[in-house]
Design goal:
By secondary structure, this protein is mostly beta strands. The chain has 1 helix and 23 strands. Strands 2-3-4-5 form a 4-stranded antiparallel sheet, with no helix packed on it. It has a 4-stranded antiparallel sheet with strand order 6-7-8-9, with no helix packed on it. It has a 4-stranded antiparallel sheet with strand order 10-11-12-13, with no helix packed on it. The structure holds beta-D-galactopyranose.
Length: 339
């Protein structure tokens, strides 16, 4: 055996001896990389970009999480007015892939023309029909229509078809949201009757039709409602009606959706950190729950540059701790945040 061959044999021997160690090292490395990529960086106040390098346009929208994938719908305000509805998806809420315009003004509903404001599109997945359902504020350019539109699709990415549009149960309806209770019952909640009250509409089990309306917060002129349930208590955040200008976010809690809402109490700073709520996102991991306030920083400085703001909040014992974290790390899988 010459010197080079001896060296080769030795190397092979060493390799065999070290194989378990190398495998272990690789495993640790893999876990470290996974652990690192599990942590995404959320930067509030800055534009988000999708994987094609375009600014994310998803205002006034909401999120749907399925099998670890977060879907985000929202208004595409690239041209300020007459928004379309965009869909994105992400595994970490940092890297967003664009799925396209799932509702296009004047194209999805050519019979209704191109002069409709599609605002606050909210996506749900109906367990009974398996269909994806979107409720939104469907407005005329002078906000006189006060209507909703309901779309549905067999697939989250579309194509979506218009189910119906008009005033729910004949009631004038503007700023809106949806809420799905723990038993799967879905609700549409909106600012009704010329912004005077909130209307809570219980929906049919296919999520497509309103069955009944309960008037909440009578005369309090609230909008941008966002409801979440924590154990047996419902929390609702809402704003006053000041158009695109931010105002004080208020909390109300109740043990029942249809009655007993507590008087409004201020949360966060005087102008909700220059935002208006679009929703509260709940992340769960085992017994751990993380709530994220999702808001729009409108006109920053113009409508197309409005920002999506997401910040962790604490909902406990009927109170809401609503600080503002400009940047933080989020572990979607573990429902954790750290600075
Ligand atoms: C806000 C509302 C927005 C949009 C805007 C128009 O109060 O939350 O969704 O309708 O008014 O001025």
């Amino acid at each position: 055996m010459d010197k080079d061959t001896a060296h080769l044999v030795l190397t092979k021997k060493q390799y065999r001896m070290k194989t378990p160690h190398i495998l272990l090292l690789l495993l640790v490395l893999c876990q470290t990389v996974t652990a690192q990529t599990d942590w995404s960086q959320i930067r509030n106040g800055q534009p988000w970009y999708d994987t094609q390098g375009n600014v994310v346009q998803a205002h006034g929208g909401n999120f749907l999480i399925e099998d670890g994938t977060v879907y985000m719908v929202g208004e595409d305000r690239t041209h300020s007015w007459y928004p379309d509805v965009n869909l994105y998806h992400s595994r970490d809420m940092q890297v967003w892939e664009y799925d396209g315009k799932i509702i296009q003004n004047g194209v999805t509903t050519p019979e209704l023309g191109t002069t409709r404001m599609i605002e606050r599109p909210k996506l749900m997945h109906c367990p009974k029909t398996g269909r994806y359902v979107i409720w939104c504020h469907y407005e005329a350019s002078d906000y006189s229509a006060s209507e909703v539109a309901v779309f549905s699709s067999a697939s989250v990415t579309g194509p979506y078809r218009l189910e119906w549009s008009g005033r729910p149960l004949g009631i004038k309806s503007r700023d809106c949201n949806v809420f799905v209770d723990d038993d799967g019952t879905a609700y549409f909640i909106s600012t009704i009757q010329e912004n005077q009250h909130l209307g809570l509409f219980r929906l049919s089990d296919d999520y497509l039709r309103p069955l009944e309306c309960t008037v909440l917060m009578r005369g309090l002129r609230r909008e941008a409602p966002a409801i979440v349930r924590v154990d047996s208590l419902y929390y609702m955040l809402s704003s006053a009606c000041t158009g695109w200008d931010p105002n004080q976010c208020m909390l109300s809690v109740s043990r029942s959706l249809t009655q007993g809402w507590s008087p409004l109490t201020p949360v966060g700073d005087r102008i909700a950190y220059d935002t208006q709520a679009s929703g509260i996102l709940t992340l769960r991991r085992g017994k751990r729950t993380l709530h994220l306030y999702v808001g729009d920083r409108w006109k920053d400085p113009d409508l197309p540059q409005s920002k999506i703001i997401i910040t962790p909040i604490t909902l406990r014992d009927g109170r809401c701790h609503f600080p503002y974290m400009k940047t933080y790390r989020l572990n979607l899988r573990k429902a954790l945040v750290k600075p």
